[in-house]
Design brief:
Blueprint: H1 2-8, H2 11-49, H3 56-83, H4 87-98, H5 101-124, H6 131-155
Helix pairs in contact: 2-3, 2-4, 2-6, 3-6, 5-6
């Protein structure tokens, strides 16, 4: 059992933890900006250009570009946060994130919504937007709707189950 803790203190384990958090940050950034971009873009376009410049194609394009910015920003933020942190604290954060069932359920709902809307949006708006914007923008909107569904379930009394995080003894330095 002590071998596992010795391995946890290696630079390879820290690199794996950083990779985990970068992927997680990219996912959370995509979810967040896919949720925020459509209403922000709609308000911006309406106030700046009027109703004539607001179209399905432009909203979908803004959604997937916003999601892409979220991917880049979330990954960069988590890399900077994790790469320059104490490896023990990063390992502890990773274990806590691994057992965070609410975050896992939010990711699952977001993924399901993204896949579902990547298929449904082109079926509904085929002639109103380009196919790239339909698929990628639909995935972004679906991701946001899935995230909202997760939070709605939590608020209405169906929270994700709590899992007890096991105790983690500190790693002794070599």
């Amino acid at each position: 059992m002590t071998d596992n803790f010795t391995v946890a203190a290696t630079p390879q384990a820290h690199a794996a933890d950083i990779e985990f958090f970068v992927r997680r940050g990219m996912t959370k950034g995509y979810q967040l900006l896919s949720l925020l971009t459509p209403p922000v873009y709609a308000v911006f376009a309406l106030t700046r250009y009027g109703r004539s410049h607001l179209s399905v194609n432009r909203v979908l394009r803004a959604t997937w570009i916003g999601g892409s910015v979220g991917i880049a920003g979330g990954g960069a933020f988590e890399y900077a946060r994790s790469a320059y942190s104490n490896p023990e604290k990063v390992r502890t954060r990773r274990i806590q994130a691994t057992y965070d069932t609410s975050s896992i359920r939010a990711d699952d709902h977001s993924t399901i919504g993204g896949i579902l809307f990547a298929v449904l949006t082109p079926a509904l708006f085929w002639k109103r937007a380009s196919s790239v914007n339909l698929i990628l923008g639909g995935a972004g909107i679906g991701s946001a709707i899935g995230l909202l569904a997760h939070h709605a379930r939590t608020v209405t009394g169906d929270p994700a189950p709590k899992v007890r995080v096991p105790e983690i003894p500190p790693v002794a330095p070599h």
